[in-house]
Amino acid sequence: MFGLFNRKKEKKGFNITSRYGNFIQKENETVLEGALRQNILLPHNCRVGTCRRCEVFINGSTVLACQFSSDSDITLEYNKQWHKANIDNITQLGNDIIKVGLFAPSIEFDEEQEGQYIDLTFDKQKSSQRKYSIVNINEKHLILHVKKHPRGEVSNLLADSRHGQEIFISQPQGEFRLPNFNTTPSTGLAIATGSGMGVALTLLDKLCSKYLINPTIISTSRKKSLGKYHDLLISDFKKKHPITKDYCMNIDEVNNYLKSSQESNATYIVCGTPELNQLFFDNRVLIEKSRSSIVQESF
Ligand code: FES
């Protein structure tokens, strides 16, 4: 019913139905490329078939949307097992960010899963669900940093929720974690946009506790409405790691920094917009040439 790059069909595109929006995938592009071309944000990260963040079910088979090109109209399904959890803390962090504490008794967590993401929904029969990265884990308790979007159904429900309210979450997934290093890193840089700063600093803190490194934080949101949230997190981080350098940059400035700084043996922890991730993807060769590594997550 579907297959790779069937060029015999005369049809110029196929209708793809998904909970994130419906779109047309052309014959010469992958499902993910078709979605992004029409501004449908299917979950994804690496785009090269390694992170599995774009995994979907089609007629019961699993495919990676960044690698798969359909030759028929299809529906993308996202099956998952839901676990009950309860909200045990809601705290405002800056203007648009809330800290959400969850208690999830039926999931076995370990601290290595900090940085991974969970899917979260208030009603597992409905399609409204969002992915949120785990900023902290303390046994069965999780902390998320959630950006409130004016039309974001899940984020607004979270902001208005009460202590003890029941929700549903998936098992943690994803590859946003520190790699196994062949050589000790000399520098760690967290580069983040918006609510990605919380989880980026969690990984930078882990790096600092393992290795004697010089930490650097680059905020790409500080001049905007999320500035207070970033200031708060960065000032807490600097209390623990006083030698930390921090900068506020836009995407072009980050690009110039990457090209001019030539950090060697560094670890770049990147969590932000697809644009920020694309920048690091484009500079991957340069970064790897200087024996540095990148850990990336996008939202
Ligand atoms: S495997 Fe498809 S985006 Fe990473």
From TrEMBL:
Pfam families xref list: FAD_binding_6, Fer2
Cited SUPFAM superfamilies: 2Fe-2S ferredoxin-like, Riboflavin synthase domain-like
Domain 2Fe-2S ferredoxin-type: 14-82
Molecular function terms, GO-annotated: iron-sulfur cluster binding; oxidoreductase activity
Name of the protein: 2Fe-2S iron-sulfur cluster binding domain-containing protein
Domain FAD-binding FR-type positions: 80-179
